[in-house]
Design brief:
3% of the residues lie in helices and 35% in strands. By secondary structure, it is mostly beta strands.
Amino acid sequence: MINRSTLSNNSAQGGLGQARAGHGAGLGGAIFMRNGSLTITNSTLTANSALRGGNAQGRGAAVFVRDGTATLQYNTISGNMNSTGGTVYLWNHASVAGVLHMVGNIIANTTGGADCEASLTTNLFNLAEDGSCGTAVAGDPALGTVGLNGGLTPNFPLTGLSPALNAAAATCTAETGDIDQRSTTRPFGSRCDIGAFEFDTLASQAGPNFVVNSAADSNDGYCDLLGQGIGNQDCTLREAINAANAAADVSVITFAGDYAIALTTHLPTLTTAMTIDGDSTTTSVDGGDVYQLFTISAAVTVTVQNLNLANGLGLPDPAGGGVVYNNGGTVTLANCSVSSSTAEKGGGIYNRAGALTVTACTIEGNRVTASPGGGISNEATLVVSDTLFLNNTTGSTGIIGAALFNGAGAMLTVENSTFQANTSSGSGGAVASTGSATIINSRFIDNRANSFTFGGGALFIYGTSSTNIANSTFSGNQATKNGGSININ
């Protein structure tokens, strides 16, 4: 019997050849069983290989059963390599009668052939990533990084998104003796987890609310209490968003301190209702002029508040929103700064669909490169209040709406806001609108439109749009062509 052990980096290299070593079959990279009985429980088999010589076979990188009876119970078998297939392999031949029982095993990340090639006598609660051997669960098991992870022998932790969680027997006492490879009690949840690792969430934040306690941008699959749990023993913004996406209830993500978070890739799409609250405007998220920050799915309600959001770069598809891309959600952006970001459309924010409210924010120094809206591009419903648009620009010649673009069929309301020193290479130094717009108690100061076709240093209103302006001031605006402040075309 093999229990709570790790078999790794072993190799069978085709030394069974008829002529000479290296020209025969490599069978059983970690274990080759010819007869007798074998039980493997709560163990990890990884980085083993079964390599063929010449035209022979290389099978069973983890376990090759030729004859006898083998039982595999609650093991994690991941990252093994075969020449011809079957990380777990049962030889099917008339001259032998091998028997293989499998209960609660993970087989995944195989290189070369199937995860499992066997006619199983017992097949319960197993997960093969490729679905081979007719396992109950198929797909990516979402494993963490192999390591001690609180045990004495290396193991693969399950992440919080793993389909192996609570997917085995309601009680696994007979197979495992109530413990996993690390001697953690099973089951921790409603059922035992598949594999050698029982997910213990005591060190992870239970949700639905999560606290970011690190400025790092790593993701080990756990939103942990600081200094507890496995992996990095923290909760990054990326991990908190993933945890909130998986939560059944509305989540609130807060921050344990003032952090400067530098992204290493785009943040996960926000797919469920949540609030991300920086608590103060000294916490920042920076895309490094390479990564987009927040993408919001359709039909979800999201609030992002009290954050500095900077240096985002909109994805090429969809081509917009360096900081925020709203694809149909109900989104509120409050007491935030959106700055120094770039996209083809909506340098700072692209409201493609849904409803967006921007209140008490600063939209500064953003740039659009191919389509209108240096600060914000709106194609749906946008409400702006108590917000400053400052030094936003458009790129190539003729692009309109340096601070804000309101598209055809869209609805815009602006109240008690300031547009200052925005510069358009086309018309509408501050705002260009072909949709419905209402502007109340707002100020347009020192904006410039460099269009040689139309103009509108502050506002460019065109098409069949309906625009209402009340209690607003226009001062120091310039147009290279017509309409120093307003051009209606």
